[in-house]
Automatic annotation (TrEMBL):
Source species: Elysia crispata (lettuce slug)
Protein name, UniProt field: Ribulose-phosphate 3-epimerase
InterPro entries: Aldolase_TIM, Ribul_P_3_epim, Ribul_P_3_epim-like, RibuloseP-bd_barrel
Catalytic reactions on record: D-ribulose 5-phosphate = D-xylulose 5-phosphate
Keyword line: Carbohydrate metabolism, Cobalt, Isomerase, Manganese, Metal-binding, Zinc
Active site residues according to the UniProt entry: D41 (proton acceptor), D178 (proton donor)
Protein family membership: Belongs to the ribulose-phosphate 3-epimerase family.
List of residues binding substrate: S14, H73, G149, F150, G151, G152, G180, G200, S201
Record bears the keyword Cell division: no
Annotated positions binding a divalent metal cation: H39, D41, H73, D178
GO biological process, alphabetically ordered: carbohydrate metabolic process; pentose-phosphate shunt
Amino acid sequence: MALSGGCTCSIGPSILNADLSNLAAECQELMTAGSDYLHLDVMDGHFVPNLTFGHPVVKCLRPKVPGVFFEMHMMVSEPEKWIEGMADAGADMYTFHYEATENPKECIRKIREAGMKAGMGINPPTQVEVLLPFIELLDCVLVMTVNPGFGGQKFISDCMSKVEFLRNKYKTLDIGVDGGVGPNTIQQCADAGANMIVSGSAVVKSTNKKQCIYDMRSVVNSALKNRQQEL
Ligand code: DX5
Ligand code: ZN
């Protein structure tokens, strides 16, 4: 299970930099390597300057990896548009961007009504405080650690203060980080208090995916343990 109320580490590889012509096999391999869930990046060429795939692809992928938790990272304008399609395709969580909608509350309501978990992300330039009115309504928040649009970008360490701020305020919140996260940056994420770890190219390009996932999990779990002891 991907969501844990902030108390365990979940690793959700992003398949953006995988071989998308071989998506089902790539996803199966990532799950066999010890992933907890999959982070599927949807881009519309409008909210971000890139295109990926939509709900028809998710619908085809769903039966190939049954039971696997799909987090849809919706880097799209007007995220309300695709809620029903994604729910129908078998998505488990719908993470939209605060910056992409006029009415985040209504978007969350629709996601729930469609039977999915609700996540909300913020881009690096966005202040963390914008999340506060919505925290109680969300299952997860996603702090972007790159400007969304492409895999393989450099991790922006400045974003860690947002994770710290959220973790200090909310002990039982699932907090995700996404962008440039891998063995070299995981310690910063863990120390700040992230527990949902999205990692794209670091895992996908690793020659030993299992080890890479194991190592990142160990770092996050030991930070979580230290924090729990301090409580
Ligand atoms: C960025 C995406 C990320 C990205 C992660 O726009 O939302 O999920 O693919 O890939 P890496 O870990 O390579 O930055
Ligand atoms: Zn993503």
